[in-house]
Amino acid sequence: MEILFATSNKHKFSEASAILSTKIKHFPFQYLEIRSDNLEEIARDAVAVAYAKCKTPVFVEDTGLFITALKGFPGTYSAWTFAKIGVEGILKLMKDESNKEAKFETCIAYHDGTDIHVFHDVCEGRLADQKQGNSGFGYDPIFIPEGHTQTFAENITLKNKLSHRYKTLLKFSRFLKTRI
């Protein structure tokens, strides 16, 4: 069974392809995302739109970086914030903050043609004071997972073993194995 991954982010597709044991195909997907503070609400809406376009099993993934000192910002607006101010802007916002706690949350929504199934996970951590490392994408150069000293961009192996996306994709993969 072939499953489509509806995303405009080639980096997310590459990560998912490497992690999932099920064969997936990239479904380039441009979509006007609803505004919500809830990842699941956004993912459910996106997968319904994607399924309406492709009429085949499809999943979407939505991730947010939630920074404690910024009351959860950028959260569900992480991609928009990254496009507008980038990592440098986040570092500037955090310059005088002592509380560097942050977490990544991921939500996958899968539409099998009948139902929408949702999977979540989180990676707790903190923000670095400056960009570190050259691997990964997005906020990886400033995110240090809990219990570690390197950013995801400094240690891509670490990211691939314990990131929010990895853990959520594993849950999704286990679910797919029961269906295929």
Write up this protein.
- This protein has 180 residues and is α/β, with parallel strands linked by helices.
- The protein has a single domain, classed as Maf protein (Alpha-Beta Complex).
- The protein contains 5 helices and 7 strands.
- It has helices at 10-19, 39-54, 78-94, 156-162, 164-179, and strands spanning 3-7, 24-28, 58-67, 74-75, 101-111, 116-127, 143-145.
- The mean pLDDT is 93.
Short description:
With 180 residues, the protein is α/β, with parallel strands linked by helices. The chain contains 5 helices and 7 strands.
Distance between the termini: 7 Å
Give the fraction of residues assigned to helices. 25-40%
User: Class by helix and strand content?
Assistant: alpha/beta
Text of the CATH class: Alpha Beta
Largest sheet: 7 strands, mixed
CATH topology annotation: Maf protein
SSE string, helices as H and strands as E: EHEHEEHEEEHH
Task: Flag low-confidence runs.
Answer: none
| Tally of helical segments | 5
Rounded to the nearest angstrom, the radius of gyration is: 16 Å
Query: In what range is the share of β-strand residues?
Result: 25-35%
Shape, principal axes of CA atoms: globular
| Subunit arrangement of the protein | single chain
